[in-house]
Design goal:
Layout lengths: L1 E10 L5 H18 L2 E6 L3 E9 H12 L4 E11 L11 E4 L13 H11 L6 H10 L3
Parallel strand pairs: 2-5
Antiparallel strand pairs: 1-3, 1-4, 2-3
Bound molecules: flavin mononucleotide.
């Protein structure tokens, strides 16, 4: 069964592009074989990642990611079965978001902004809505 998991976490190190590159390297190395796709949004303080793939694989990966010292306080925001992947062509799309606000030109509505801020604060949310908002960052 295909599932999608979204979590938010706090970065522990001084933010650097090298750190992001290293994480994306690991994604490139491992995710294709695992059949995992998704998106990683990050600010100087936070990671917000959506991963999608087979249920059993997702849980194993999340357990591994949670133990990574580059972040802490991983909070699962949503976890649900999906019919198909929404990020099929990326191993792990990534995008920097400006400190914890969305102040650039996406077609994000005021309602989305409220939901997104709430996500960054670690509040659970509707998984489909969360996915839609994350997708908007890549349009
Ligand atoms: C925010 C964040 C997201 C990550 N996402 C992934 C991921 O999607 N896939 C992955 O294999 N590793 C991911 N990692 C890295 C893993 O925690 C781990 O370091 C890596 O999988 C080890 O790879 P290796 O077994 O090939 O050495 C992520 C780490 C962080 C901090």
């Amino acid at each position: 069964m295909l599932s999608q998991l979204v979590y938010v976490s706090n970065r522990t190190n001084k933010p650097s592009e090298k750190e992001i590159e290293d994480i994306l390297e690991a994604c490139k190395r491992n995710n294709p074989d695992l059949g995992i796709t998704g998106a990683l949004l990050y600010s100087d303080e936070k990671f917000l990642q959506l991963v999608e793939g087979e249920n059993s694989t997702i849980m194993g990966l999340y357990d591994k990611i949670k133990q990574d010292k580059r972040h802490e306080n991983c909070v699962m925001l949503s976890y649900m079965p999906i019919k198909e992947k929404s990020f099929p062509s990326w191993h792990m799309g990534s995008k920097k978001i400006k400190s914890d606000s969305i102040d650039y030109k996406t077609n994000i509505t005021p309602e989305d902004k409220v939901i997104f801020s709430s996500l960054l604060s670690g509040n659970e949310a509707d998984g489909s809505k969360t996915k839609e908002i994350i997708q908007k960052f890549f349009k």
